[in-house]
Amino acid sequence: MDTDSRLVVPEETVLEACGDVDLPRMGLVEQVRETDPIPADALEGRAGAAVESLPFGDVPDGGEVAVGVGSRGIANLPTVVAGVVRRLDELGYDPFVFPAMGSHGGATAEGQREMLASLGVTEESVGCPVRSSMDVVEVGRTDERDVPVVAAADAVAADAILPVNRVKPHTDFDGTVESGLSKMLVIGMGKQRGAKTAHEWAVDWSFRNMIPEITERLLAELPVVGGVAVVEDQRDDTAIVEGVPPEGFLDREADLLETAYETMPKLPFDDLDVLVVDRQGKDVSGQGMDTNVIGRRPFAINEPEPDNPSIKRIYTRGLTETTHGNAMGMGSADFVHADVAADLDSSTTLINAITASTTRGVRLPPVVETDRAGLVASLSTLGVVGPDDARVLRVTDTMRLDRCYASTALVEKARERSDLRVVADPEPVAFSDGEFAAPTPHETD
User: Fold this and answer.
1) 391 burial level (CB within 10 Å; 0-12, 13-18, 19+)
2) Looking at the structure, do residues 181 and 217 belong to the same domain, yes or no?
3) Which residues lie closer than 8 Å to 346 by C-beta, 6 or more apart?
4) Within this chain, do residues 299 and 370 fall inside the same structural domain, yes or no?
């Protein structure tokens, strides 16, 4: 999509308005972490073992099993789903995958199929059909508020339902269960209609109360045999693959969420002047940039922002390819590169925002022509901060935080910490036609 030239502020205009801004030198730091991921060659077997631990006693031989898969960029997702499908086949069942992703993919059947394919989940890669439809059926209503509870028609018609999802902190709310199996049932499996209903009621009811109640109703009404829960470590590698039976959805998921909080990626510094994010997208986080990482939740209704980190300016440089133009969460940035506006799919983004009742999250920030303009504009709006004192960090995205470019002030702090290693000493920021010459941090290995 071509960017309306009127939206993009030329570099020359920004530099003239900001005056002479000295840029800090930037080095490279690495977070030192002890992790124990599941070996790649063991993942499919672990996924199969997770399936085998679930109760299939009421499922007839040869019965259809609807495997729910979402839109998140989960590490090793095709391998895990393939392991689930293979074991279901071996147990004598007839599995199929269905998109359990609410309104994502532009709220169309083909868009959701394409979203799965972009994540590597295809009929060829996982070994079973992928059925994509936006049709839902009402399966019940909540007790006190009489809220309709809907679910994907394909899944409801199956003999068993088995969601596969990552358990992690949510970007919009805090609760005993957040992103995971329960939320996939309530919102992902509800397609656009269910997701819209849930987000509308969450304004007053709150997700922390609504998701457990609707989950219990879905478990009572539908043949959910359990789920396969995934937890990732600080390096976004797969650390846990576990089968969770229906009766453990809320309690066991709460335990796994505590683990996920402990192991989630975090910025190496809590107090920043400028954070440069090379890319955002739905495959990175539901809000494009994980609110738990950036410490900003400006679009969540009746939900407090995280206590830290504190970041004065955020400059976002682009969108991931897998997000397919969905720029949900770009409203958290203070400045964005012209590439964000150029790749923006307004319809997909707005549908997601309307469904999630978070329209402030898709406000387009000021658009700058180049990286030089974005960095200068960010620094020049901080007040009086010299280049040696400016705390500037550049990351790939809010999932990949192992390596970060850091300004001199931060590099000197890193030298004093055992959990950080200085990979490269600070040097002047290099530009090529106004764009950063250095590659994105996670590609510096």
Assistant:
1) buried
2) yes
3) none
4) yes
